[in-house]
Write a structure and sequence with these properties.
The protein is α+β, with helices and mostly antiparallel strands. It has three domains: about 80 residues, no CATH class; about 220 residues, Aminopeptidase (3-Layer(aba) Sandwich), CATH 3.40.630.10; about 120 residues, RNA polymerase II/Efflux pump adaptor protein, barrel-sandwich hybrid domain (OB fold (Dihydrolipoamide Acetyltransferase, E2P)). Helices cover about 20% and strands about 25% of the residues. The strands form three sheets. Strands 3, 4, 5, 6, 7, 8, 9, 10, 11, 12, 14, 17 and 19 form a 13-stranded mixed beta sheet that branches. A four-stranded antiparallel beta sheet has the order 16-15-13-18, with no helix packed on it. The structure holds zinc ion (ZN).
Length: about 450
């Protein structure tokens, strides 16, 4: 879906498209005149009583004198209704979602920006800060909602920059009760704090989306290469991931309670978009995310222009976390996004007390999709996330018979509730690809 709509800007081409669509506007293709610069046309000013349902091509603007035979006017757009409010076609509204009540009893609100286009189309939801300390997505969502022109937009963008206002205000990943909001969707009306906030958000916002992008970052001093995580077993999700330009895609089933999993289960194709590290704004990562969403808007037929990409989209059907087996200071030998071969040194852990050094190597060939930023690690700390270039068939073979292998985003469950696998004996070298899945719980690492 990378074809450019730039040509549609040409009036002659636009005319041909209108004819091809069977438009019945009384206009002459040859005698068409450009829009007058000093009389801007407002959507609310015009309508076509003979054909109120006419839908033009993406980005088609009203032009020409509305009293003339050449007039091409925008169609009437049905107002968008959200949380009891109406947003007119071709306009932007800033609404407010009540997430919960605070300790003082006052409502805790979060902004919801609705950009309602001038022609009917898909509803794309962009949400961030489900984990309150993950800031890059907040800025990406803000920029997209600020720069999207409702007069040329097809469809609707719903932008929620802060889904977890509790965590955001406290610089915390969690809700005040230490629960992870992204384990409680779609939630219930009478459950825990997290479950109620999730339920309110799902009912108020998510149910109105046709597609959903949920922005996250690495967690706990880890940074992620900008990447989409998606359940590629679902054809509609696969099709959705194709719209993000060259943004890498990582197969991930996800886990019950995650927003993207709950949305997809409700028939709304959804992905997690990982961008950078928590508790900071990273300019390059933010720019990448903005470009990816601009590309997505075009891919969904919502805007006329698309950014250019000079690389192809890579898909990783498998990935592995590589852990440190000793405590000390972590010195990275690779950078985010590097391609590595099996056995290549990713980093070293140096022990400042005994002056010992342990090398951490990649068990597989692949690309560094995530890595630790914190220089101090304990044995077991997940330091590098390597995406494997496997085919879907190979990934399926590796994963067959054990659902939890690829469930790298799972919650911590007490080990007593599981079957204990054989633990490595002290001093035994642990190859990450041989670690039993039950031991490879990386729940707090990701979205
Ligand atoms: Zn997150």
């Amino acid at each position: 879906m990378t074809r450019s709509f730039a040509a549609f800007r040409g009036r002659v081409v636009t005319t041909l498209v209108l004819l091809a669509l069977g438009a019945v506007y009384p206009m002459s293709p040859v005698a068409a005149s450009p829009q007058s610069a000093d009389t801007p046309l407002l959507l609310s000013d015009y309508s076509d009583p003979t054909n109120p349902d006419f839908v033009g091509p993406p980005g088609q603007k009203a032009w020409a004198d509305p009293t003339s035979d050449e007039f091409v006017g925008p169609p009437r757009m049905i107002p968008f209704e959200l949380m009891g409010q109406r947003v007119e076609g071709g306009s932007v509204a800033r609404l407010s979602w009540t997430a919960s009540e605070g300790f003082a009893g006052a409502s805790v609100e979060s902004p919801v920006v609705v950009v309602h286009g001038s022609r009917p189309g898909p509803v794309l939801c962009l949400v961030a800060a489900v984990h309150g300390d993950e800031l890059n997505g907040v800025e990406i969502v803000r920029r997209i909602s600020n720069t999207t022109d409702p007069m040329t937009l097809v469809g609707t963008v719903i932008a929620v920059p802060i889904v977890n206002p509790f965590g955001f205000s406290r610089d915390s990943r969690y809700l005040p009760d230490r629960r992870d909001l992204n384990r409680y969707f779609p939630g219930t009306a009478y459950g825990s704090v997290a479950s109620r906030v999730a339920h309110s958000f799902f009912e108020s916002i998510v149910g109105h989306c046709d597609h959903l992008v949920d922005f996250h970052t690495g967690s706990f001093e880890r940074s992620n290469l900008p990447q989409i995580r998606a359940d590629l077993r679902l054809p509609e999700v696969v099709a959705f991931t194709r719209g993000f330009g060259a943004t890498p895609v990582l197969q991930s089933n996800g886990r019950r309670g995650m927003l993207r999993v709950a949305a997809t289960a409700a028939g709304i194709p959804a992905v997690t978009f990982e961008v950078g590290a928590p508790r900071r704004l990273q300019g390059d990562a933010i720019s990448f995310g903005v470009q990816a969403i601009e590309t997505l808007l075009h891919s969904l037929g919502m805007t006329g222009d698309s950014p250019e990409w000079d690389t192809q989209q890579a898909v990783f059907y498998d990935s592995q976390w590589v852990r440190s087996n000793s405590g000390g200071l972590l010195i990275n030998e690779v950078s985010l996004g590097d391609w590595v071969h099996a056995g290549q040194q990713l980093g070293r852990v140096v022990d400042p007390l005994n002056n010992r050094e342990e090398s951490i190597t990649s068990p597989i060939p692949g690309r560094v999709l995530g890595m630790a930023l914190n220089p101090v690690v304990l044995p077991g700390f997940a330091a590098y996330h390597v995406g494997a270039e496997t085919s879907p068939q190979q990934a399926a073979i590796r994963d067959s018979g054990d659902e939890s292998v690829e469930d790298t985003e799972s919650d911590v469950e007490p080990l007593s509730e599981r079957e204990h696998p054989r633990s490595p004996t002290p001093g035994e070298a642990v190859r990450a690809d041989l670690v039993p899945p039950e031991l490879d719980d990386v729940s707090d690492i990701d979205d």
